[in-house]
Amino acid sequence: MTTCKHTLGSCGIVALIFLSAALVSAQLSTDFYDETCPDALDIIEDAVRAAVSKESRMGASLLRLHFHDCFVNGCDGSVLLDGATGEKNAVPNKSSLRGFEVVDDIKTQLEDSCAKVVSCADILAVAARDSVVALGGPTWDVELGRRDGSTSSQDAANSDLPAPTSDLGALIKAFSDKGLTAKDMVALSGAHTIGQARCVNFRGRLYNENATLDSTLATSLKAKCPSTGSDDSTSPLDPSTSYVFDNFYYKNLLRNKGLLHSDQQLFNGGSADAQTTAYASGMGVGFFDDFRVAMVKMGGIGVITGTSGQVRVNCRKAN
Prior knowledge:
The chain is mainly α. Helix content is 46%, strand content 2%. The protein has 14 helices and two strands; from the N terminus they run ααααααααβααβαααα. The chain has helices at 10-27, 40-54, 58-70, 100-113, 120-134, 154-160, 168-176, 182-189, 199-208, 215-222, 248-254, 261-264, 273-280, 287-298, and strands at 196-198, 234-236.
């Protein structure tokens, strides 16, 4: 057993990650805009509900924006910045991320109500929560007070976002690198109970993993995702209840119906099997509780607070 005493080894680095997260959380608060922009949360909620009502898929898109923002240089709204070398053009995001127009609309309304107060990063955090609720999922108190970054890195997005081809070990490491546990990873993966994936991201599994992919599902998927071409054709991550935030994602995994290779890794004879099985039982023992806890933790990754950063007037460009 390795011990860490007086040197800043791996134990010290991990400790610093969690200490940093705790300090950041202390700087955020759920009532941050109560005096400076009292209508902020209502404005965001109304806009999200309208967008999801118009297109159910938008709920998953807004949730994904928050995840992809936080995993690349922290929850700083950088995923929203335009630019040829920015995160929008990274491999996991290009022709894939959606919902930017909804965020633009929310920002315009907030600027009309209270100019230069509510950050784009906070919009993403609240919109993610409201999207989950709009689709029948759990609610949680969103900690607020994030400031916006002014740069966006395509390279960081390419390296830090977990790939759909990731094995379980790679998934655990990717989340651990952000201060999240393996338990958090399995819970947050439940976001795939809503949304779609592109053919290019599950073609390898579809044509090479027959032993762990339900044959009936495979047949139906091949009709939309041939061995070549149709890269942007989409299929639901949860074919059972595609637009309801529930635990059917985990139920599907127990039946070898995970769409992505990384999905099925949560039930493939590894260390995540027990947690996945628990979430799949009944209405999902512990899933909603663990998901809301993990979302709060993720929302604190690398945030900018105080007088650092900025509150962008236009979420697509720095002030």
